[in-house]
Design brief:
The protein has 5 helices and 4 strands, in the order βαβββαααα. It is α+β, with helices and mostly antiparallel strands. It has a 4-stranded mixed β-sheet with strand order 1-4-3-2, covered by helices on one side.
Length: about 130
């Protein structure tokens, strides 16, 4: 969920009140992660601060994938292949989708400054 900065504490408290476990930002500024009280369905739940680079990045990726079937299909195929690997872990998953995400970001580059693009690349690929 995306909320104004002033509403983040209330959103965190509301989720905790219904059993979600707050896990902090897990290294991503402007995003608070939660563990669900059950696993049916499996899900990731985040409270994100409106307007942050991370939110803008996710929305830009969404928008590019909506309008570019070629990138949408490539991204989907990469994610399915990574998910099919039983030995997959988070670092390998992030590394495995970096190349296609760079193509998506290139298609959205006009929405970010050069510094912002570098920050996004470093989040997805720390060696960038």
């Amino acid at each position: 969920m995306i909320v104004p900065a002033d509403d983040v504490p209330a959103a965190v408290a509301a989720l905790e009140a219904i059993g979600y476990v707050h896990r902090g930002d897990l290294g991503v500024a402007g995003r608070e992660a939660f563990r669900a009280p059950d696993e049916d369905p499996a899900r990731h739940v985040y409270v994100c601060t409106r307007g942050t680079l991370n939110v803008r990045n996710h929305l830009a990726v969404r928008d590019v994938l909506r309008r570019r079937a070629d990138l949408r299909e490539e991204y989907g195929a990469v994610k399915l292949a990574l998910a099919a690997d039983p030995r997959m872990d988070v670092p390998a998953y992030l590394a495995g989708k970096t190349a296609v995400l760079q193509k998506v970001l290139a298609a959205a580059a006009s929405e970010f400054t050069e510094d912002e693009l570098l920050q996004i690349r470093r989040l997805n690929d720390p060696e960038a």
